[in-house]
Amino acid sequence: MLKYSVIPLLIACSSVTVADHRQYSHSTTRMAWVTQATPIYERISYSVPQEHCWQETVAYEERRSNSAPIIGAILGGALGNELGHHKSNKRVGTVVGAVLGATVATDISRRRTGSHYETVDRCEIQDRREWRDEIVGYNVSYRYQGEIYHTRLPYNPGKQIEIDVNVTPRG
User: Fold this and answer.
1) Confidence category of residue 109, pLDDT binned at 50, 70, 90
2) pTM over 0.70
3) Handedness of CA 152, 156, 160, 165 (dihedral sign)
4) Are β-strands 147-153 and 115-144 bridged in parallel, bridged antiparallel, or unpaired?
């Protein structure tokens, strides 16, 4: 009975040892000396808002009154009516006087109203495109156990770099 239980026990122990041997891998951290760290540049465009100002002369017209042509038409119509001797002449005189009175009043009001000029400051924001070279990473060379290795990092590592050393048995 003992020999039947020893054989399976030996088989189980040997398979555990083999399985453990095949999956064994060990990683350790070491420091390596950096031999070179070269920056990697990328040309980047950006927008710079810039205020652009100037002076501009602007004409302002004074508001005209609509009452001058109306008053002129009334006065012209009344005068034309007074100058006519007969009923039909009074009607024609009233119409002609009203038209002439409105026209003369409009011309006079245009001469009186004028425009004046003011100098005003105007400004607007314009975007100006500029370019700059920006560091986007570093090409790094380092020495470990007499060998030179290369990598790319997003930062400058300085004089030394921390590396992972993996030890895997051959099998």
Assistant:
1) low
2) no
3) negative
4) antiparallel
Q: Return the structure tokens found at 5.
A: 């239980």
CA distance 37 to 160: 11
Residue 55 pLDDT greater than 80, yes or no: yes
Nearest residue to 149 via CA among 64, 61, 54, 36 = 36
Task: Give the CA-trace dihedral at 23, 24, 30, 35, to 10 degrees.
Answer: -50
User: CA 112 → CA 64, 104, 107, 119, distances in Å?
Assistant: 9, 13, 9, 23
Average pLDDT over the chain reads 77
Q: Which two tokens stand for residue 89?
A: 């002449």
Q: For residues 35 and 41, give the distance between their C-alpha atoms in angstroms, rounded to a whole number.
A: 20
